[in-house]
Amino acid sequence: MPSFNKITIVGYLGRDAEQRFTPGGMAVASFSVATTEKRKDGEKTTWFRVSLFGKQAENIAPYLTKGKLVFVEGSLRQEEYTTKDGQTRTALEVSATSLQLLGGKDDTPRAEAARPASAPQPSAKLSTSNPVTYTGDDDDDIPF
Predict the structure, then answer these.
(1) What is the DSSP-derived secondary structure letter of residue 132?
(2) Can you give the pLDDT at residue 109?
(3) Distance in angstroms (rounded) separating the CA atoms of residues 49 and 13
(4) Residues 83, 20: contact at Cβ < 8 Å?
(5) What is the second-level CATH architecture of the domain 7-137?
(6) In the prediction, which pLDDT does 23 show?
(7) Burial, 127: exposed, middle or buried (Cβ in 10 Å; 0-12, 13-18, 19+)?
(8) What does the domain layout of the chain look like in residue ranges?
(9) What CA–CA distance (Å, rounded) separates 134 from 144?
(10) What is the pLDDT of residue 122?
């Protein structure tokens, strides 16, 4: 019987996305997403490390800033690592296949936010009413 691994997350970015490129030239955007559930005894926050690949990562990385609300779909894996002080920790890692910006803060990319007010602003701006979606059509570019 075939197996299936899919996760859907709606949460807030915990930090700005970091963009890098593989040796083959493919863009990779890495960021963290927090989800919080309310319980009788308080709130429980779960953190996910998310990686997005290809053109989508290259195009959307400047918009992925701390505090933005995002919708992420992908596959989940659990990774163990050892901290500098020798403790074994577990991280939830998501390889994203679909991402939508839902809102939170403003929709100005980091490059625009850093410009002085007197600099000309590009006319194209991402709107939460027209979210950017990655459909996963370029699966050949995924490095695994």
Answers:
(1) -
(2) 57
(3) 10
(4) no
(5) Beta Barrel (2.40)
(6) 94
(7) exposed
(8) 7-137
(9) 18
(10) 41
Tokens matching residue 121: 């602003």
Instruction: For residue 41, count CB atoms less than 10 angstroms from its CB and return exposed for 0-12, middle for 13-18, buried for 19 or more.
Output: exposed
Pairwise CA distance, residues 125 & 134, whole Å: 17
- List, run by run, the mean pLDDT of 10-residue segments along the chain (144 residues): 91 94 93 93 93 91 92 93 90 92 64 43 42 49 47
3-state secondary structure of 120: coil
Burial class of 6 by CB neighbour count within 10 A (0 to 12, 13 to 18, 19+):
exposed
Looking at residue 59, the DSSP 8-state letter turns out to be H
- Here the tokens at position 71 are 């919708």
Burial class from Cβ neighbours inside 10 Å (0-12, 13-18, 19+) for residue 90 reads exposed
Q: How far is CA 23 from CA 28, 58, 94, 97, 128, in A?
A: 11, 15, 21, 21, 33
